Amino acid sequence: MDIKITSDLNTEVLVINKFEGEQTSQELANTYAVEKDNFEGKLGTTYLLHTYGKIQADKILVVGLGKREEVDGNKVTEAVAKAVKKLKQIKAKRAVIDFDGVGNLGKYAVIGAYIGDYNFDKYKTEKDHRLDEIGFNKFSENDVKEGRVFGEAMLLTRNIANEPAEYATPTKLAQMASSFEGLETKIYDREDVKKMDMGAYLAVARGSAEPPKFIHMKYSNGNPKKRIALIGKGLCFDSGGMDLKPASSMLTMRDDMSGAACILGVMNALNKLQPADIEIHGIIAACENMPGQHAYKPGDILTAKNGKTIEVDNTDAEGRLTLADALCYACELKVDEVIDIATLTGACVVALGTAVSGVMGNDEDMIKRVIETAKLSGEKYWELPMYQEYRDGLKSEIADMKNTGTRNGGASAAGMFLKEFVSDVKWVHIDVAGTAFLEKPQGIFCYGSTGAGVRTLLNYVTKA
């Protein structure tokens, strides 16, 4: 799909907006949609009419934006996404979006176009319908450009997370990271990781024929006033290891690297956005959790990079083990802040469902900034508690801690486990277990990966 700026309204479908209680910018739409059929313009609703040569466009698609005084970037994203889904439904190829009264929200409109157009059909012989071109009128070039970068970052993230595990291996993720322009990238193999004493991460990787890859990408521009590390959970496939998952639970476990996919999308976008005076590290401990002949076992004692020992209570609580060593590594970089994003716990899905991601951390101000950024970015985050009682459930008789506790409060217990590997740095953990991958369409998103975290993290680091 080609995204461009245009003032030429001679197109197949002209997409215009309607606020509740108001007329549209096109008299033809006012006559038929508003006056004849009482189209109200509630957010995300659409009305299609043929123009029969009365204007340059062949058709007009009116999309509701709700009440004018309540419109914001997220509502513009939703409206455009739903308009584009309608354009796909009628098999349109070209459209111009000509919105009135929404100010400088072009970035959000373009993001909505990318979301609405998305469908992962790489492996289908019969491809889904796609638009060839969408033009945007009345938005600035900078807004459209930024929206395009955000949209492409989400596109990359969603494509990676939707790929089957036979394609999206740790080696493939490392190759992708190495291909990104404007970054300094290091890839550490198994022997390198051994030398760095990452015993928890390496234990998870032992059972797979796929070699682990520890990925470190770095963006720096100007004299850094702030240094931020972003960590993505990179389990390219999670079988559960020796504590094998039920077959039905493994069907979508290609998505267990959604955190890593998010970080790849974010880091690839930075060279295009060129945020100044900041240093950003993207870190992924990529591997598979498989029950091979060398797999780690329940009861094993692992030693993490910071020297703390972990009794393996359940091999299916593997993501926190890989993140433990990644967090230690990030803290050694002397950054100001660390954010990790992970499909970490089923308990978070039970607590918050598939619309809201869980957030925890060691600094209330940073947590609030991340949550507020998410809100402005069109994502919903909710802070979960971190009390000592959750840590008490991880006590071990033979090691510093277990990797799991009871089923109760599992998301918070996982957060307390991760906190053990954070030293002298502000840190936020984002659990996207419920929001990163949808097993049925929800809102403006189709089945599969949603690109969870991309918009929030890009806005957070570029506005830091």
Low-confidence stretches: none
Classification by helices and strands? alpha/beta
What is the H level of CATH, i.e. the homologous superfamily of the largest domain?
Zn peptidases
Number of strands: 19
Output the number of helix runs.
15
* Rg, alpha carbons: 23 Å
Biggest sheet details: 8 strands, mixed
Q: How are the strands of the largest sheet arranged?
A: 7-8-10-9-13-17-14-15
Percent helix range: 25-40%
Distance between the termini: 31 Å
* CATH fold name of the largest domain: Aminopeptidase
Tell me the CATH architecture of the largest domain. 3-Layer(aba) Sandwich
The oligomeric state of the chains shown is single chain
Strand fraction band? Answer: 15-25%
- Principal-axis shape equals elongated
CATH class of the largest domain: Alpha Beta
Mean pLDDT: 97
List the domain count as a whole number: 2
Short note summarizing the structure:
The protein is α/β, with parallel strands linked by helices and 464 residues long. It has 15 helices and 19 strands.
